[in-house]
Amino acid sequence: MEKTPIVSSHIIDVGFADTLFIRFKNGAVYRYEQVNYSVFDALRKAESVGKFFHTFINKKFTCVKMDNDPFAA
To answer: What are the domain boundaries of the chain?
Structure first.
């Protein structure tokens, strides 16, 4: 998985392995289905990661809360 640490009040890091993974500061990790690499790349380069997330990802893609932490692998 390609991982990028993020400076954000709610997100710790993001990762991409055929789709988007986001680890939040509360410890939850979500997989966002059918997100392509260009969205991942724009998210990690965004001036405001939170604004980008809420505008282009949150409630736009199906998400699944992960039981395991793919960032630990």
So the answer is: 2-65
Q: Going residue by residue through the chain (73 aa), what tens digit of pLDDT does each one get?
A: 999 999 999 999 999 999 999 999 999 999 999 999 999 999 999 999 999 999 999 999 999 999 998 888 7
Q: What is the pTM of this model?
A: 0.93
- Which string of b and e fits 37-54 if b means at least 16 CB within 10 Å? eebbeebbebeebeebbe
* 3-state DSSP of 3-52: EEECCCCCEEEEEECCCEEEEECCCCEEEECCCCHHHHHHHHHCCCHHHH
